[in-house]
TrEMBL record:
Its main location: membrane. Its EC number is 2.7.13.3. Residues 248-456 form the Histidine kinase domain. It catalyses: ATP + protein L-histidine = ADP + protein N-phospho-L-histidine. Pfam families: HAMP, HATPase_c, HisKA. It comes from Nonomuraea rubra. The lineage of its organism: Bacteria, Bacillati, Actinomycetota, Actinomycetes, Streptosporangiales. This is histidine kinase.
Amino acid sequence: MNGGELRARLVALSRRGSLRTRLTLLVTVAVALAIAMCAGLSYYVLQTRLIGNFDQSILESVRGGDRGFLEHNCTPDGTRGPFADGSATLLFANGTTCSIGQSPIVPDYERDSAAFEPCEPVYRYGTTRDGKPVRVVTVNFKPGVAVMESRPVGYIQRTLRLAGVSLAGISVLGVLGAALAGLAISRSALRPVGELTRAVEHIAQTEDLDTRIPVHGDDEIARLSSSFNAMTAALAGSRERQKQLVADAGHELRTPLTTLRTNIDLLLRSEQTGRSLDPGAKERLLVNVKAQFAELSTLVADLLQLARGDTDHEPHVELGLHEVVTAAVERARLRGAEVVTDLSPWYVVGSATSLERAVLNLIDNAAKFSPPGAQVEVRLRDGRLTVRDHGPGLPEEELPHVFERFWRSPSARGLPGSGLGLAIVAQAVTEAGGSVSLENAPDGGAIATMTLPGTLIRNSESDKSA
């Protein structure tokens, strides 16, 4: 198996295995590469130092030897004597040799001939005539003559072989230790991920959004667990609001539907029995049916407005809030409301349709509770829109509930409305990044305040001026 195939198999394994397996494999491979590099570097340094010291000892021997004895006692086939190991050989310019010892060195004329003149020592591996491997150092003996001295390399080879085996064993143990450590680390590090996985699987199987994951520390896993808990809490709240909306909608729809059914049953019974209603009673009945249909249509439209998600709205664009308020005031006047305005320019980012509906709901709500002939005061300054009526106001204990869905003041039960108008206002303002509140005015009546972030001039105009 070549390196490419091994790499391909490792990649395939890392993709097929679990996250814990992949993490363990990556840690093991990384440590194995680091250990291999360290072992290779250690072997290289050891080899270099050993050979360097070995070469230095040979060089000191050849430079400190008795050159006269070598020159007068060497023979072409070697001799016995102080150099019984056959470690010294003279190389002449004509290619002949003269050695002392039983194992003359086989010359490498191309490299050794450089020492015929004074030069740096020549280091090389070589052999003797009987085939033994040796380390050879060649230096200049005198002009036209080089001297070669050698030492057997068996000791060096055994030392390096032992070092290689030891480093390989240490590397294998290191890789195994890294694998075990990686497995332990992955188990510990991925334990929160396992808890998260089990929680997600539990939610998928049971739809239990009350499941929470313990959060420990402040690392990435802890933030992931916190985000997951926040997500499930938001989903649980959304589902609860949907249930409440459905329950409230069913309750609110029941009244107009019951009234419609009663009136229609009365009309059908009069026709089926042949006892027709008098024209006045029949007209009142039909007017009541029409009014119930109008109330039902308004209620359904309000429900659809509230039922859409926070992101299910028109694209937000830059618009003039004062222009939106002006359009809402004109619509309110068409419905019979007496409205006075004091508006200054203010530009916001939002949905014109939603914001106009919100302002119109505030004006309609103020007009509904104002005495006949009273004016609704609408004022816009620096992103703060106020809608003031001169009605009776609200009890303080009821003010926190005015923006809740289907909530209606006990004093307003007899007035038309579904209890969704101010809830729609709160939703539209929140989508635009603002806030809304309702409070009693000091001298009577109520003041609704809508605050939206924005600027006095359009951003496009400020860019042009810049």
